[in-house]
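Reopening this one. Same input as before:
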Amino acid sequence: MLSIYYLSPIVASIIYWFEEPIDDSVDMMNNLIHRLGSIIGIFAFIWMCFNIIIQIKLKPIEENFSLDGIIKFHTWMAAISLIIAGLHYPLVRLERTYSSFQIRSGTTGFMIFFGIMFLAIIFMSNRLLRYKLIEKLRIIAFKKKFKYGSNKLLHNLMMLGVAVIFIHTIVANTANQSILMLSVYSFFFMITFIGWFYHKIIRRFRSNADPYIFRKASWDTIISENKSESNKEWALDLIKHNPSLYPCLQCGTCTEVCTISKVTEGKYNPRIIILAVRFGYKDLILGGEEIVIWGCTNCNTCEERCPQNIKLTEIFTFLKNQSIVLGKVPDCISDQVKRIYDHAKAIPRQAAIEKRRLQLGLPKVVEPDVNEIQILLKNLGIDKKIGIES
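Same output, byte for byte:
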C-alpha cells in the first residue's frame, strides 16, 4: 500500500518527463526548473488524492493500520503536499506565461487546501492545544454551534479542492498536448471521486439501520435512545474546562480498549459518555447511576490510546466531582468513602489477610493515620456530601 502511495507520483512524473514538450524560447536551465516545478505539482496532486482515499475506510487500510497511525500519516502527508504545492507555483512561473483561468484555478485549489489545513489544526487536532488562542476559538465555535459536524463538512471540501486542481491540470499545456498525461490526471481524480462518493453517499445508506455499525466495539449502544434534556450551557462549561474534548471523532477506540467496558459488555461506555457530554445531557451523566461515569477506574488506557489526544480521564474525574457537588453519588461509592473515612483504607484490615501475609513471609502492613485522612476529607467537605456525622 505504501509502495503504491509513493511510487504512483514517480511513475506519473516519468510519463510527464517524456510527454512534456521542450520550450525552445527559454534556456535549458529554465526548462529543467519548470519540469521540476511541474513534477512537484504532480506529487502534491496525487498525494492529495490518496489522502482522500485514506479517509474512506477501506477495509485493508482499517485492518493493517491503527487509527492513530492513519490520522498522523494523513496529517503529515497533507501538510507535505501543501508545502510542495506552494513550491510548485514559483518554479513553473519562471519565465512562463499562463492563461488567467489556469492561474486562478491553481490558486483557488491551493487556498481551499490551505483553509482546510488551518481549520483542521484549530478544530480537529489537540496537538497545538497548549496555545490559549485555540482554546478560545473552540469555545467561540461551540457557542456559535460550529461543532464537529460542521468541521467534517468543511473537511470534505478536500474533494472540491482536488476537483479544482484537476481542472487546473487538464488545461495545462502538457495535458492539452498529451492524451497519455490527460489520462494519468483523469485516472487519479476518478478513483478518488468514486471512493469519496461511495464513502459519503452509498455507505451512509448502508449505515442508516445502525449508525454505529462501523464502530470498533460490538456492544456499543446508540445515544439516540436517551431521553435526557439537552443543557448547552453545561456542555459549554465542560469545553471551557477541557478544550481537548472538542475534536472527538467518535471512533470508539476508548470503548474498545476500556477494561470496564469489556467486563460490563458496554454498560460502561466512554465513547457514549463523551458524546452525551457534547450533546449536553447533564441529567444522564450526573444522575447518580453507578455505571455511567463511576465505572472509570482512572487507569488512563483510553487516554493513552485516543488518536485525538483527548484528556478522557481528566474529563471523567471532572464529571465525578460535579456529581459529588450535586449529591448524586452512587451508594457503592458512598460506602467506599465511608470505609476510607473510618479506616483510611478502601479495604479495612482483616485477620484473614494478615494471616495470609504472614504465611507468605510478607512484612507487617504499616497502619495509616486515620485521623489525618479524616481531617483531609473534612477539609474537602467530603464528609458532608456523603452524610458522615462528625
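So the earlier flakiness isn't reproducible anymore. For the record, Confidence is low (pLDDT under 50) at residues 207-214.
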